[in-house]
């Protein structure tokens, strides 16, 4: 794989552009006291989005590629979570926040579409290890009812 191969991949280009915009538009407006905390978290999580798409693209096997896209999607959600926090503590303007929220949703849809394409096309299905299955395992949430014995709340 090469840079020219990645640049033909729209999802990678959009993820790269998103990370660059985070670097240029969000990091400079964060306060100095956030230089080694929030700023670094946002920088790392946003850079992780295109990096994981690139890493998966270089695997040549769709299940590994899908796995890295899941990681990229998680990094996008982490970045958006940090952006929400920065907005809620008044580090970001409403306009900047809303622009990134919309762009994040669009990038999320693009990553999901790419994952769907990879699963459908099964590129590299005959590669070694192709018989292994990568799947999401639904985990059960354990919810404890703290209201037992309390008459004012019922959970159904």
Detailed description of the structure:
With 156 residues, this protein is mainly alpha-helical. The chain has a single domain, classed as de novo design (two linked rop proteins), CATH 1.20.1440. Helices cover 62% and strands 0% of the residues. The protein contains five helices and no strands. α2 runs antiparallel to α5 and α4 runs antiparallel to α5 (94-121). The radius of gyration is 20 Å and the shape is globular. The mean pLDDT is 85.
Short key terms for the protein model shown above:
156 residues; mainly alpha; de novo design (two linked rop proteins); 5 helices; globular
Write the layout of secondary structure elements.
Blueprint: H1 3-7, H2 10-26, H3 38-57, H4 62-88, H5 94-121
Helix pairs in contact: 2-3, 2-5, 3-4, 4-5
Number of helices: 5
The percentage of residues in β strands lies in under 5%
What's the main sheet like?
A: none
**Radius of gyration, taken over Cα atoms and rounded to an integer in Å:** 20 Å
Q: Indicate the structural class.
A: mainly alpha
The fourth-level CATH homologous superfamily is 23S rRNA-intervening sequence
């Amino acid at each position: 794989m090469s840079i020219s191969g990645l640049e033909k991949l729209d999802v990678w280009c959009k993820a790269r552009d998103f990370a660059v915009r985070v670097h240029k538009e969000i990091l400079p407006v964060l306060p100095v006291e956030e230089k080694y905390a929030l700023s670094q978290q946002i920088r790392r999580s946003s850079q992780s989005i295109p990096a994981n798409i690139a890493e998966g693209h270089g695997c040549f096997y769709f299940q590994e590629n899908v796995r890295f896209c899941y990681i990229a999607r998680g990094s996008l959600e982490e970045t958006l979570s940090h952006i929400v926090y920065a907005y809620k503590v008044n580090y970001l303007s409403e306009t900047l926040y809303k622009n990134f929220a919309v762009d994040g949703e669009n990038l999320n849809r693009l990553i999901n579409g790419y994952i769907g394409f990879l699963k459908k096309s099964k590129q590299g299905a005959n590669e070694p290890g192709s018989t292994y299955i990568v799947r999401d395992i639904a985990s059960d949430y354990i919810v404890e009812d703290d209201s037992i014995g309390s008459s004012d709340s019922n959970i159904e």
